[in-house]
Write a structure and sequence with these properties.
heterodimer, A: 274 residues, mainly alpha, elongated, B: 311 residues, 14 helices, 78% helix, globular
């Protein structure tokens, strides 16, 4: 895969540019946001979009654009960190289950299946409800919901890769399992694992938004895209911009991740090259 | 056949135990001490110890888990902290509403999804194909709760074609917006799978021969290609049924639909933990049961699956 593949695919290219802009927005938030996201301006409550407030203001007179800029940090941080954490846990247990097989595999696979047996949002609700709500509980809930899917994928990959001759050769030379897993199996499984990971980031961001919407994520007054929608949804008819813009931010972000994920899968997954 | 059924049902038991173990652990790790809450602030240590013993909380954890399982076996999910109503009763009362909504969403998603998928496959490579692809990517990317609000704004407030929320005593128009909202996610997957299955069928020799014998294009597409593409699509629809519970939590909240989802949200807002865990446990059991039934019914319906099992 080269950069040329990316520039030749207009939707993937646009998605990549949007995501780069989004990351820059999240990093440079304080310098970009026109106003402080928490300052309430009682003289300009529920103002429609205007030059002074591009996306309008909310019911407490806070600038919606600034709140969306700050909200990007939470969405991206949770989405990316939860993906990375659940990938690590999933890779660890998936490799062990797939490589060692036997009873280890049966027990671990049963555990994966139990986690996958829950409807994802319900499990995330259950987990985050028992912790004090906030950034950590949202991340932990999403990680615990997400890892089992990766584990099952990695298990399958390890199961087929361990039959390869180079693994056999390494074993014959007396390499320990840890070395075989790390040096031979993981690198060969990695492209597919990363494709699966990139396809899930969008879903994790949606899950974070849903938890925030339900009041189980990062708490007010810190702005998150999901909580902006739930706090302002009573005004959907009288002041729709309060709800429309945060939702657009979530949608565009997740669409970009999914388009890029699809693109990576088409390029990196050999099973797709028909 | 009997062996297969038995095996599936036996494998179902550890999954159920695992689910209850997770909800038990979650219940035990709740913040605060429910016993202290029940006893009141000025309760003596003796009173607290007595209540603890009554609830069985002085026993070792494995025994407590067994007690929890025994309660579950009798259909006892505890009572709401606030209304003191039995959670099992509430769930049974609200579940039919969620099923009704999910069925409406399923019909919407299947009909429109298969239609769009066939259309995109027939128009492969054209602008239409790309439009359908974009719609299906958007469908899995747009947050359900925002989609619901946006549809409500457009169809209920601006155009005033449909009621914004409520159940309207079963009046059909009230279910349209929630069903579209809930079904969109699934619709996107159905569209994708239909499209790729159709592309495969359309390249098969029997399609060439159907065309060669002079059938109209509509007959070729619908009677020959679509019929043979439906198995993966129906598989997907079956496996996806349980995930309607996720969307239902959010959709019901937006539209004031009196089902499990809204019940769960009320529990969350009031920190009514037995209610939250009741819904989580019930949802998981429904989810795995539906998957099991779908699996078993394939076994009966599709001989190819049976042969694969035998190998």
């Amino acid at each position: 895969m080269t950069l040329k593949d990316l520039t030749g695919n207009a939707p993937a290219m646009i998605a990549a540019i949007l995501l780069i802009l989004l990351v820059l927005t999240a990093v440079a938030g304080p310098y970009l946001a026109p106003q402080d996201p928490l300052t309430m301006d009682l003289d300009s409550l529920k103002q429609p979009p205007s030059k002074a407030h591009l996306f309008g203001t909310d019911s407490k007179g806070r600038d919606i654009l600034s709140r969306i800029v700050y909200g990007a940090r939470i969405s991206l941080a949770v989405g990316i960190i939860a993906s990375a954490l659940s990938l690590c846990i999933g890779i660890f247990f998936g490799l062990i289950a797939g490589y060692f097989g036997g009873r280890t595999d049966i027990i671990l696979s049963q555990i994966f299946d139990i986690f996958l047996a829950f409807p994802s949002l319900l499990l995330a609700i259950g987990i985050s409800a028992v912790m004090p709500p906030g950034l950590v509980s949202a991340m932990l809930a999403i990680t615990l919901v997400g890892w089992a899917g990766f584990a099952r994928l990695v298990r399958g990959l390890a199961l087929s890769l361990k039959e390869q001759t180079y693994v056999e050769a390494s074993r014959a030379l007396g390499a320990r399992p840890a070395r075989i897993l790390y040096k031979h199996i993981l690198p060969n499984a990695l492209p597919l694992i990363l494709v699966a990971g990139s396809l899930r980031v969008g879903g994790f961001i949606l899950l974070e938004a849903a938890l925030s919407f339900l009041g189980l994520g990062v708490q007010p007054p810190t702005p998150t895209w999901g909580s902006m929608i739930s706090l302002n949804r009573a005004y959907i008819n009288s002041a729709p911009w309060m709800v429309i813009f945060p939702g657009l931010a979530i949608s565009i972000t997740v669409i970009s991740f999914n388009i890029l994920g699809d693109f990576l899968r088409d390029k990196l997954d050999p099973r797709m090259q028909v | 056949m009997l062996f297969y059924l038995l095996k599936r049902i036996l494998l179902f038991i550890p999954t159920l135990l695992g689910i209850t173990l997770i909800t038990f652990i979650l219940m035990r790790s709740l913040p605060g001490d429910p016993v202290a809450g029940m006893a009141g602030e000025r309760a003596s240590p003796e009173t607290i110890a007595r209540i603890r013993a009554e609830l069985g909380q002085d026993r070792p954890l494995p025994l407590q888990y067994v007690g929890y399982l025994k309660l579950l076996m009798t259909g006892e999910l505890g009572r709401s902290y606030y209304t003191n109503r039995k959670i099992a009763d509430d769930l049974i009362q609200k579940f039919p509403n969620t099923i009704k909504l999910a069925l409406a969403a399923l019909i919407f998603a299947s009909v429109i999804g298969i239609g769009m998928g066939v259309f995109a496959a027939v128009k492969r490579g054209t602008v239409w194909d790309r439009v359908v692809t974009l719609i299906s990517v958007s469908g899995i990317s747009i947050p359900v709760f925002w989609l619901g609000l946006a549809l409500m704004l457009l169809f209920a407030f601006y155009l005033q074609w449909l009621p914004p929320s409520g159940m309207g005593n079963g009046n059909f128009v009230y279910i349209i917006l929630p069903a579209v909202t809930l079904g969109t996610f699934s619709l996107s997957y159905i569209t994708r799978v239909t499209r790729s299955a159709m592309l495969e069928s359309l390249s098969q020799p029997y399609v060439v021969s159907a065309r060669a014998k002079g059938l109209s294009e509509a007959d070729v597409v619908l009677k020959h290609a679509l019929k043979n593409s439906l198995i993966p699509v129906i598989t997907l629809i079956g496996l996806d049924l349980g995930s309607y519970l996720n969307g239902a939590v959010l959709t019901e909240t937006i539209f004031g639909w009196d089902g499990l989802g809204r019940y769960a949200l009320e529990g969350i807002l009031k920190r009514d933990y037995p209610v939250i865990m009741g819904v989580v446990l019930f949802g998981a059991v429904v989810f795995v049961s539906v998957n099991l039934l779908v699996d078993i019914s394939y076994h009966f319906l599709d001989p190819r699956v049976r042969i694969k099992e035998a190998k």
